[in-house]
Every structure is written in C-alpha cells, then in structure tokens.
Amino acid sequence: MNATIEKQDLFKEALGNYPTGVTIVTTTDENNIPLGLTVNSFASVSLDPLLVLWSIDHKVSSREAFENGGKFAIHILAGNQSELCKTFASKDVDRFASCNWALSPLELPVIEGAFAVLECETYKTIEAGDHTILIGAVQNIQVDKELNPMLYHRRHFGEIPAEFYS
C-alpha cells in the first residue's frame, strides 16, 4: 500500500473515532438563494472578540458563495435532527424543502429546531490544503436550553447520553 494512502486511512480512522458535534452551515448566494451543508469541522477560536471557525472542501459546489458571501449561520444541531443532518450532507436534493427555516434580520437562512445558531460575519479565510478555513465573528446567538446537542462518533449520530449530564 502507498505510504500516503496508508497515512490518510489512519488519519480518517483516528479522527473518525474522535467524537464531535455536528453543524449545518447556511448562507445565501448572489441571487439570495439559500445554501447549506453539514459540517463537523467546527470549533471556537476566541472569546474577545467572539470568533468561531469551520472548513469547507474545495470540491464543494457552494464553496465560492460561502467564501465570498461575507456571512454565514452555524446551526449546532439538536440530538433529534439526524435526518436533517443527512439531508444537508446529501447531493442533488432540495435541502431547505425538508425543514422549516426563515431569513434572519441579518438575512441568513436560519433553520428551526437547532440546539444553537450562531450568525457570523466572515472575519478571515485561510487556504489550508484541500480546504478553506472560514473564521466568523459571531454577531447573534440563539440557544434552546431545552434541547441537547447532537454527537457524531464512529459514523453514528445521536443525542449526548443523559449520564453525561448527571
């Protein structure tokens, strides 16, 4: 086996076993058509100012809209939104037809039912290998404290187990 492919396989194995949260990131294109995709490469960056980051693969068809749009909304999914997560990870489907959503006062598509939504203005973009890292300055935050966030681990989605909260 090629050493590079072997390293990539080990990398996928290691990070695929690292539990993460799951998000859907949304924006609009130049014609105000909503765009969104499932993302698990999300992290906090700074408290002052409030900054978060996520990354987008260079092969994603909506990449330019996210990179050049100047703003995006990050939805930290609730544990009961696995079907929505799968829909926004699928190709050639009307992703927004499968959910309730509305444009926010910042003119971003916001999906109902998420654990949290962070509306961001693009702070910086950084080219990194086959992805672009987008850093967002958080402008607005909504949190539904009645919900629990989704967890992704070993290719499975689900709610964080109750024993984590006791």
Automatic annotation (TrEMBL):
Keyword vocabulary terms for this entry: Oxidoreductase
Residue ranges of every copy of the Flavin reductase like domain listed in the record: 15-159
Pfam families reported for this sequence: Flavin_Reduct (PF01613)
Superkingdom, natural source: Bacteria
GO terms, molecular function: FMN binding; riboflavin reductase (NADPH) activity
Family: Belongs to the non-flavoprotein flavin reductase family.
Name assigned to this protein: Flavin reductase (DIM6/NTAB) family NADH-FMN oxidoreductase RutF
Organism of origin: Psychrobacillus insolitus
